[in-house]
Amino acid sequence: MIVINNLLQVMESYMLKHLQINPIATASLFSLLLLLFPQMSFASADIPFLDLTTHWVGYASLAIFVFAYILVIAEEEIHMRKSKPVMIAAGVIWAMIAIIYAQQADTAFHHTAEVMIRHSLLEFAELFLFLLAAMTFINTMGERGVFDALRSWLVNQGFSLRTIFWLTGILAFVISPIADNLTTALLMATVAMAVGGDNIKFVSIACINIVVAANAGGAFSPFGDITTLMVWQKGLVDFSQFFSLFLPSVVNWIIPAVIMSMAVGAGKPDVAKETVTLKPGAFTVVFLFLLTITMAVSAHSFLHIPPVIGMMTGLGFLKVYGYYLKMRHKFHEEIMGDDGQSTMSIEGINQNQDKDFNIFRQLERAEWDTLMFFYGIILTVGGLGTIGYLTVGSQLMYGDLGATNANILVGILSALIDNIPVMFAVLSMMPSMDMGQWLLVTLTAGVGGSMLSIGSAAGVAVMGQARGIYTFFAHLKWIWAIALGYGASIAMHLWLNADLFDNIPIVP
């Protein structure tokens, strides 16, 4: 643990060490609960903390958190958005903590809850704005027809089922590092469903392959998954260092893909001709997205400022471009004659496609439930950390098991719970690990969720899209093949990147 010399450093350290998402899958395994909770060190003369782990507030907070996450897991059954229970849980837990601290005779305790809540809010704000910018770009590219055009091209080529199986897998692996694994999985699953039609067996196995490929592709890029994004934002792994996981990620996908491809027939589906026309500015939006990614990387790597600054600047460029599209349409209307015919040729203008374009509509289409879910989880885990449970979890996981075993376990937990909260938990623990171990946990958290359909956002989303075809049990039949890929990718990383395991801990 880093010794904090002044209040500002204390605030920064706490923000890095305990404000991450850490949901718990079940109330029946208390040991699992402890494993997921991050470690925070609150040894500071400036911000005093109480040990509430055996206090009624501690027990009540655990119960509230577990109950809230059970509701999150049951979202598909009870039809209640996952953000609602965790947002309430966060408020109740912090209210109880604040009451206890306010009752202390020593006034030094009175502002502890306030300081820690502000830390959590700052951490959430950075993640929120980054994801909001990225989601807006993805939505805009979808609105301009970029993804529909790719899907249409694949569907119209008349490829065999086996070729489609491999193409959708390869594209999922290649696109997810840029467009994120969730968006990529949904796009490729749409292709598989369009091509497969009534061939349920093909659609099911193609969706499994797509989920595994999208998660594997997202594991070696900060933009491929929220788990890798969080590791990058913490400054634990530089942008270029993520590419050390490229070959392990390939191995993670290719092994189960080869096995599953043997169950795919070589027949050809009926070709369903469809035409999709890109809307004006589609390629410009793609360029602006790539420029924004470059700015985010540069901000973090060269200017040493949060990457969210680059993302928000890029969002500003996108909004200005949206303004240009609207003004171009207005200019087009002004030069139209009374007979409705243009008095001059304006190349590339399509008034119908520009007329209704509004960048704020794409902003509104962001995954607000997911963003609010992050708020609830970050604040809730911050509360549980303030209570004092997180030190116990860190000792159990990284102290007793050791870093390598603990990081491999992270991937297994990701399959049971969801890789995002598990990675948030590890980042909150901030165990003392070298670069090799941080890359290992990035890999396992990213690809471990592929072992079960519920282990990643990509899997859950595709289950909703291919409802009744790609199911939990359909995915479960191939868990052995996916687990082989999981083990092989770990072995590949341990061998290929052995020089990164130098026992020199990374200090953010």
How would you sum up this structure, described in words?
The chain is mainly alpha-helical and 508 residues long. It has a domain at 145-272 and 434-508. It is 67% helix and 0% strand. The chain has 24 helices and no strands. It has helices at residues 7-18, 30-36, 56-73, 75-78, 83-102, 112-143, 146-156, 161-179, 181-196, 200-218, 226-233, 246-261, 282-301, 308-334, 351-355, 359-364, 368-387, 390-400, 403-416, 419-429, 435-448, 457-465, 472-476, 479-496. Helix 2 (30-36) packs across helix 18 (390-400), helix 8 runs parallel beside helix 10 (200-218) and helix 12 (246-261) runs antiparallel to helix 24 (479-496). The protein is globular. The N and C termini lie close together (11 Å).
List strands and helices in order, with pairings.
Elements: H1 7-18, H2 30-36, H3 56-73, H4 75-78, H5 83-102, H6 112-143, H7 146-156, H8 161-179, H9 181-196, H10 200-218, H11 226-233, H12 246-261, H13 282-301, H14 308-334, H15 351-355, H16 359-364, H17 368-387, H18 390-400, H19 403-416, H20 419-429, H21 435-448, H22 457-465, H23 472-476, H24 479-496
Helix pairs in contact: 1-6, 2-18, 3-5, 3-17, 5-6, 5-17, 6-13, 6-14, 6-17, 7-9, 8-9, 8-10, 8-12, 9-10, 9-22, 10-12, 11-20, 12-24, 13-14, 19-20, 19-21, 20-21, 21-24
Features:
single chain, 508 residues, mainly alpha, 0% strand, globular
Order of helices and strands: HHHHHHHHHHHHHHHHHHHHHHHH
Class by SSE composition: mainly alpha
Query: Helix segment count?
Result: 24
Straight-line distance between termini: 11 Å
Major sheet = none
